[in-house]
Amino acid sequence: MVAEKASGVGTNPLEQFVLLAKTTKGAAAVELIKQVLEAPGIFMFKELIDMPLIKELDTSPHAGYYHLLKLFAHGTYQDYLKQKEELKLPEMTQLQKKKLQNLTIVTLSLESKCIPYDKLLKELDISNVRDLEDLIIEAIYSDIIHGKLDQRNSSLELDFAIGRDINPGDVTNMITEFQAWSDSCANVLKAIETQIGKANSEKHQHLAHSNAIDMEILNIKKSLKNQTNQSQDTDDMMGSDNVVDKIGKKYKIKSNRGTSNTKFWQK
Description:
Layout: H1 15-21, H2 27-38, H3 46-49, H4 52-55, H5 63-74, H6 77-83, H7 94-109, E1 114-116, H8 117-123, H9 129-141, E2 145-150, E3 155-161, H10 171-251, E4 253-255, E5 262-264
Antiparallel strand pairs: 1-3, 2-3, 4-5
């Protein structure tokens, strides 16, 4: 069974709430947080968390809602269940619960692109597969994730998931991972440059060898040409001597080859 995506989310739907947070405090700020946690298309909350009047809730009787907002930014549904008593987190509405469960799937997608149903049922605190698949399909149609339900293997195969707010505590780890990635890229680049150098060296050697062969062939051609010319000159010289012999016989002339004296006589 494949669930396709449908509608998209807004460009920055949180902006209107951030503007209201500039002048909203106390109980009104709590109502603002409730609306944000239920609002469709809002899955990142850092800007709102950083607003001064929202931060004031952390030291007020409404601190539970401030912690709940931070949980939506960085946490999971299991975090909510574990910290509910300690942080005095308020009860969530059905819409808020579904959104946090969807955000939990996003977090799980960072660990694996193929998530077994068993893991999802546990992490989302859902008792049956039918409800789980309905939740996943809703998340796909809300553009929170892209993927398909693999019912044969009882798993969710993910192609895409939206981003979440960065937990300040994760920044150091991210820097370390990016540095490791950068070092790996540098090593790969160095290896490529080494291979390029070897290839260029082999190319130059091949060209030098090819030029040496061409020069040797040219020398051989010249040598053969010289030998041919010398042979032709010898043949021409022998041909001239034959002509002299014939003339001598006709006119009774005797020629002493190799000397400058020639004797003439008659019968």
